[in-house]
From TrEMBL:
InterPro entries: PepSY-ass_TM. It holds the Pfam family PepSY_TM. This is PepSY domain-containing protein. It comes from the Bacteria. The lineage of its organism: Bacteria, Pseudomonadati, Bacteroidota, Sphingobacteriia, Sphingobacteriales. Coiled coil: none annotated. The keyword Cell cycle does not apply. Keywords: Membrane, Transmembrane, Transmembrane helix. The chain crosses the membrane at residues 21-48, 162-182, 214-237, 369-390.
């Protein structure tokens, strides 16, 4: 005689909201996982581009000397004579870039047949250190990494919206993941599972902890990096973020001002020297990270002077100035970038920081490390998530059937 086994208490049914959240998290994660993995991993690598360039390209460094930098005209004359001695009779100066103490100066030139040369010199002695005609190996590597991060190594018009759409999907995945992570009831057991990784657990349990716990701790940082990244892809998203931060409508990008072409006589014989001296007077030379002076090649083009502070990689508080090509009169530029950072509202300052926040360079090394860790965790989430899905769907061991079950078949 067969008797019915006592029924075990059934688990309470999940709400429709909970089921929808879990369904979205699962299937959106599976559909976008490969792109999210690539974008996060390449983003983590790209964080360290400046450090790699600095240590692998030795021509960027010179011994610090206790004397001032040589004027641009001296360095331009030395590099120009060097190129002319190599039978480059038609050379066009494009610009000169000064760095901090201990950095070389770069003079960039246009050559015939649309070629170019970057001549690196010692700013204290005018000694030529490097004649660079092509990208270095480290630069090519990071160009490749950036192409994966921004375009998934596809043509820009295809890859950019694809990556942007995947990042928007990733935002939904992160939010639904946080909802899924949140326990229905807080107990000592749920707290331990939610906030601690059980390193001595079996690998399946450890994988779940790595997905849930690391996902929770990195949530804010990964969200921040994702949102700041989408700004570079979709104009409508950029305008929405700008409006949300400033309560203003973002104006269209204004083209740089033009020089007065009716003036034909050059007022100053050493215009680059004058602009260089002017910037070192207006700003504290010890605080300037890079000073780049772009030389006009056409009559209507102005001189452009860009000043970056700190280590020279920070952009949010940089200064950009335009000067007439003949008179060196300062030209007014109708753009939000023309307004000094200190004069912006709080929302405008935050928006101006978008690139530096996204790349982790906003506060230097500490935030770079933080961004790197967040990117690596972000890259791990699709991997650990797929493993969890696989284990729950196919990884469970089939229970051996009892003798009674077998006899009933």
């Amino acid at each position: 005689m067969l008797t019915d086994k006592p029924k075990s208490p059934s688990k309470p049914r999940k709400s429709t909201f909970r089921r929808v959240v879990e369904w979205l998290h699962l299937w959106l994660g599976l559909s976008s996982g490969v792109i999210v993995f690539v974008v996060c991993l390449t983003g983590g690598i790209w964080v360290w581009r400046h450090e790699v360039w600095h240590f692998t390209e030795k021509y960027q460094r010179v011994p610090v000397q206790e004397k001032p930098f040589l004027a641009p005209s001296v360095l331009i004359a030395k590099s120009g004579n060097y190129l002319r001695a190599k039978d480059h009779t038609e050379i066009t100066l494009q610009g000169i870039t000064y760095g901090r103490a201990g950095r070389s100066v770069m003079c960039s030139y246009g050559l015939p047949d649309e070629k170019s040369a970057e001549i690196y010199l010692n700013p204290y002695t005018a000694e030529i250190i490097k004649d660079k005609r092509a990208s270095a190996a480290s630069e090519n590597f990071f160009i490749f990494i950036r192409a994966g991060h921004r375009f998934f190594w596809l043509p820009r018009n295809i890859g950019s919206p694809l990556v942007g759409a995947a990042c928007i999907v990733f935002l939904v995945i992160l939010i639904t993941g946080l909802i899924w992570w949140y326990p229905k009831k807080w107990t000592n057991k749920t707290r331990e599972k939610s906030f601690r990784i059980k390193w001595d657990a079996k690998w399946k349990r450890l994988n779940i902890d790595l997905h849930n716990v690391l996902g929770f701790y990195s949530f804010i940082f990964v969200i921040l990096l994702t949102v700041t990244g989408i700004v570079f892809t979709f104009e409508w998203f950029e305008k929405a973020i700008y409006s949300g931060l400033t309560w203003k409508e973002k104006t269209a990008y204004e083209k740089p001002p033009l020089s007065d072409t009716t003036i034909t006589q050059i007022k100053y014989q050493q215009p680059v020297d004058l602009l260089w001296s002017r910037m070192n007077t207006v700003y504290d030379r010890q605080k300037i990270g890079t000073l780049w002076i772009s030389v006009p090649e056409k009559a209507e083009e102005p001189y452009r002077v860009s000043v970056n502070f700190g280590d020279g990689t920070i952009l949010y508080n940089s200064r950009i100035h335009y000067y007439d090509g003949k008179t060196l009169k300062k030209l007014h530029w109708k753009s939000d970038r023309a307004v000094d950072y200190e004069k912006l509202s709080v929302g405008e300052k935050i928006f101006r920081m978008n690139f530096d926040i996204h790349t982790g360079q906003i506060l230097g090394l500490p935030t770079k490390i933080l961004a790197f860790i967040a990117c690596i965790i972000g890259a791990s989430l699709p991997v650990t998530g797929v493993i969890i899905w696989y284990n729950r769907k196919w990884g469970k061991k089939k229970k051996k059937k009892s003798g009674l079950e077998q006899s009933m078949e």
